[in-house]
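Good morning N.,

You mentioned wanting to compare the apo and holo forms, so I went ahead and generated the holo version with 2-(butylsulfanyl)adenosine. This is what I fed in:
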Amino acid sequence: MPKKENPAKRIAELRKEIQKHNDLYYKKNTPKISDKEFDLLVKELQSLEKANPDLVVESSPTLQVGSDLSPQFSKFKHKVPVLSLENTYNETELSEWLTKTGIDEFYSLEWKIDGASILLYYENGKLAHCVTRGSGGIGDIVTENVKTIESIPQTLSEPLNLSVRGEIFMTFADFEEFNEEYGGKFANPRNLAAGSIKQKDPLDVAKRPLRIYVYDVYFSSSRKGTNKHKDIVALLKKEKFPLAPDSTIIQGKTLLKEIESFRNKKDKMPFPVDGLVIKLDDLNLRESLGETSQSPRWARAFKFDALLKETTIEEIDFAIGRTGKITPRAKVTPISLAGTTVTYATLHNQDYIDQLGAGIGAKVLISKRGEIIPAVEKVTVPPKSVFVLPKECPACKTKLTKVDDSVDFFCTNRNCPERKLNQLIFFCSKKQMNIEGLGERQIQIFFEKGWVKDIPDLYTLNKYKDTILELDGFGEKSVKIIFDAIEKSKEKDFRFTLPSIGLNEVGPKVTEILIEHGFDSWEKLVTLSKSKNAEEELTSIHGIGPRTVDALLAHLKDKETLKLVKTLIGLGLKFQADETEKSDIQPFVGQSWCVTGSFENFQPRDIAMDLITKHGGKKVSGVSSKTTHLLYGPGAGSKLEKATELGVKLVSESEFLELLKKEGIEL
Ligand code: IVH
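and this is what came out, ligand included:
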């Protein structure tokens, strides 16, 4: 007979394990197991506690929701418990629940957005506190950080006391752009969004492309006239809160069919979703069903199967990024996952390898979500030994070092061949100088031949034209495309040339902000760097943080960087910004415009800004004493308050449209 395990011992083990994973997910934003595996642990603990009620304690994780509390924030006692959702993973589980709640009832079916949960407390109609879910009972006050999300209404149309619940998230596109600027150090949009609202400095948060969708309202007193979920949605819509697309009210019997149409769309969503949420529409029915200490009985999450597949690590090699960052990569036995063949999966860094226990020969689970590169998620069969990163750069043998408090190792040799190669690949890429025909393969060939060792060599490559034509795979036509594209890249202005040379912290966004603030050429930046108040001046620019200022000033004084830019200018590249298209009608000359909130006629709102610059105005990203006008729309936040304080002229969307009409400017 098998030995019966001591339930008290197993319960203690499970509680410890669950607590550990709760902390990894909610506090460190670095989950190590999938939601499904986590749920299995909780289910095992639940059934043991059910069989042994005398062993149940109030602090058991089965009675608490996971906590995201961090010590550095002030705490807020939630007005109602902030509950979580019980997960279902298949149609059978969902149908069982549906039978209990009523197959003929109506339900709201919504995307489950993978971000960070937030409560927006309104007092007398004014946004008073923004609080994380925390333990469900108390949360962290992150008001100033969350207020940087401009689509959140600061005031309601009535002096109501209520709280709005939503999810702060990042789109895949925003995540990729932001992560690229930071050398790819963030693992996924959820972790970055959750980490962002816990930053110390709201100015740093303002730099991050956070967004919000809201999905519920809790009323402080009676919810007069609000009997259905759809009434809540109508209220949120009326108050101009951002709502997720596709939410729909359906009858229970059509749920499984509807789920299929969501499933088909899932991989095309521009933001991360980790399933669906199904909620009873009738609020009175919800009340009668009630809730457990963790989750309501009237709602369920439906998780799509996680895209995980098993394979074996055959080798581990390294990507040496253009900034010198070393990223270990597992070369795996090829598998087909979400429509592509995966041969490499990232292992991020040594800490990650250690936590997984990964090494050559290990059987592992690989994930692929959205646009993000595949990652090793879990070791299912351990290797003989856990992999240890070398102490030296695999390409140039320079000793690897850690920078600041980063978990990553860097090769600091700026002439490291791998680094150089990746700089070249980045420079030529579509988003940068867009040199058609020069992809990774072609660049690698020219690099290995020694024809292109550094960026300037691209512009003298002509001398090898005949030799290139002798190479396999380089015909007249493809070689012409390359040389035409190299020549055409000289038309790209400072908006492209500056971020393309791969200076850390100086990506497209920072460049755009610098240009907006009048630093529209390399020369102007160098002159600034020589002035006494350079640091002060740069720090005062909204959207440029202290780390960027330090890095930028260092680049502007660095001899090799100065030499590189001088050479490129000599070769005909533009290191000044082009004038933006100007019109004969110039009503905005001498004016400095800032824009905030959302607009009906200008989506994205850059369309409004472009009209202003085209007709003589200057656009600025933050309100200061130099700003003359603020164009504001619903969801305008702290910028509107600041502009009011400073006496900046406030212009609403309809006033702006009037103004354009009066001047004869067409949309
Ligand atoms: S409703 C009591 N709706 O999922 C009902 N939650 O695992 C509470 N989430 O903590 C939540 N999208 O952060 C709801 N459309 C949606 C959601 C959603 C994402 C998150 C939320 C919650 C977690 C539960």
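The longest strand covers residues 308-320.

Happy to go through it together on a call whenever suits you.

Best,
F.
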